[in-house]
Amino acid sequence: MKRRYFFDNIVPIVMYAVVGTTISSVSVGLIMYVVGQLAFSIKLSLAEALSFGALISATDTVSVLAIFQELRVDPTLFYLVFGESSLNDAVAIVLFGTFSKFIGNVYSSSYLPIAILDFVLIFVGSTLIGILFGVLSALLFKHFDFKGCLYHEVRGFATSSHQPHRPHPINP
């Protein structure tokens, strides 16, 4: 992976992932809600419909990326699609966690700012936790010599990979 293409396009990648996945989630959720209200499908609450929309909104573009690689498309396009597909899963998980908190509760439009703030805090907080643990892992493996003790190296790698998921569960 050529990181330069990825990081040169980080702003559009994040915008496509956050805005695109949010639009997809809300669109699918609202359609499911309206279809249910019209008795063409199972009647869902708005929170349930939006949670469902978030659940199915993330896309997996492995086949598209394989075709792009075979056709040798412009690297910028390849990394835009790669980056968006890498981040949209995280966005969908955070959206699902945010929407599912409202299932079974009475809510009004005044809860919209709370939901947006919750989304932003979880998304930014998770990103910062990931960066922190990534830097700590890099420093650990850079400054400690594990030669001769494969067990400790594998254990350190597995532990450093697992630890970022412990501070905050997906849906508390």
UniProtKB/TrEMBL annotation:
Keyword Transmembrane: yes
Database matches in InterPro entries: Cation/H_exchanger_CPA1 (IPR018422), Cation/H_exchanger_TM (IPR006153)
Membrane topology according to the record: Multi-pass membrane protein
Record bears the keyword Translocase: no
Keywords, sorted A to Z: Antiport, Ion transport, Membrane, Sodium, Sodium transport, Transmembrane, Transmembrane helix, Transport
GO molecular function terms attached to this record: potassium:proton antiporter activity; sodium:proton antiporter activity
Record-linked Pfam families: Na_H_Exchanger (PF00999)
Transmembrane segments: 12-34, 46-68, 77-99, 111-141
Name the record gives this protein: Cation/H+ exchanger transmembrane domain-containing protein
Organism: Aphanomyces astaci (Crayfish plague agent)
